[in-house]
Amino acid sequence: PTAYDNNGNLLDKDGRVTTDITKVLGYRLPSEAEWEYAARGGNKSKGYNYSGSNNEHEVAWYFYNSRNKTHKVGTKEPNELGIYDMSGNVSEWCSDCYGPYSSSALTNPCNSTACSDRVSRGGCWINIENYIRVVFRGYHSPSSTGSSSGFRIARTLVF
Length: 159
Prior knowledge:
Blueprint: H1 32-39, H2 56-59, E1 91-97, E2 118-121, E3 137-140, E4 149-150
């Protein structure tokens, strides 16, 4: 099923615009919360600073080891869920608009209304250690491109 309309709005199974990411059945960008949950190791998390380790050299291609280029996925160690390259290599787009977090506690919030900047997470090959930590939030214009940006797809599971 189609996940987005031509304006970048999320669509539900009937093709109607929605802000409820659980109603989107097609392949899509992960919400920022979904991305962070996966990067932290999900329910197997050991609380690492980087996705899968406290030692950035084990899990990330970044400023000090990348030789100024991206690398093949899976050439560093995975995180606790077996997911590779969530710290470093390329910054990953999320479906959420960039802005301050809500002051109220939310479960998997989705902030995908029209905006000028989208969240990017994970840092990239040109970043120093601080910017590849799982807590770091970056942003880019949806029209920007470059060798330091990438994406990972997600899909809502329907039981």
